[in-house]
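retry 2 of 3: previous attempt timed out while embedding guanine. Reduced batch size to 1 and resubmitted. Inputs unchanged:
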Amino acid sequence: MAEQCGALMADLILGQVLTFTGDPFSQGLSAARHISDGAVLVVDGKIAALGTATALRAAHPTAKVTDYGRALISAGFIDAHVHYPQTAIIASWGKRLIDWLNAYTFPEEMRFADPAYARSVADRYCGLTLAHGTTSFCTYATIHPASVDAIFEAAQTRGQRIWAGKTCMDRNAPEGLRDTAQSAYDDSQRLLEKWHGVDRLSYVITPRFSPTSTPEQLAAMGALWAEHPDCLMQTHLSEQTDEIAWVKSLFPAARDYLDTYEAFGLLGKGGLYGHAIHLTEREKARLAEVDASLIHCPTSNTFIGSGLFDMGGLKAAGHRIGLATDTGGASSFSMLRTMAAAYEVAQLRGQALHPAQLWWLATVGSARALHADAKIGNI
Ligand code: GUN
Ligand code: ZN
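retry 2 succeeded.
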């Protein structure tokens, strides 16, 4: 029986505990705290203490003990950028970004017009994340509102903390996968009011990227964000050089890719910019100035041939950075594999990331990028 302090139930979980007292990039590797014979005390479902097994056993002699031996006890992984509707097409062969979207992604996302299909993939995706130790994620749905309901319902059933939003696109996407500036605004607002702040669920305003939104739609998304500043906003930025050239041709007056967001109120703290590989000096400076979040997607960036994210340079410049698979551009659902890819990508830029830094990115780093580090990401 678990120890009862008044009505409180106490559980003692034993194993190797990994936790962070700070950011190992800026504060050194000693910011990673490893307790070899460790223990975590959980009282009424909440973490109450951590320390050595000996000390916590002595202090809580009647707590219910579960001994995981040499297993590692850590905060769950947080995947800061995914497209759950792309679960079935992960690791699709042989294309670069724009062709990959047209050949594989858009046809698959069309299938989400059927709410039953959306529910089956949402269930499968949540099961996959938990099997990989990913307790939280931030996802794009498709343009179909029911695809947002499906993922929130699947995560709610499992107690996962997630962010999700209706992907908005009103151009350069096939018939059946386009909304309008007005319907994107109306549907997003309705979903936001329905789900934002319910249990562990948060709505995230989601214009896919500049090439698939007209200036009118970007302005509508910017207006919605201004009306709901407590929501995050997610999009893609400077993933491939061909994409950047396309953005330049679609927005000839823009100073750069970031400016196509900035001009419509889509740059700010609480903005999540996926990939962010080929940034200009102005873009880097503006992103740092507003304290926006950059999301590194290393298995996707290598699989789709996008490029090498500058972790060392961007971290040193103080950027807020999260780690993500980018399912289904990714080649794996696993954040462990994603950490390995982040290591390999950094090596190709002459930077060596320590395992403590990689683990921090997949937990605290992603939590900070999602402005949720007061609640998740660390023990
Ligand atoms: N840019 C716009 N949409 C997408 C997407 O679905 N995946 C990736 N990797 N990049 C994108
Ligand atoms: Zn993406």
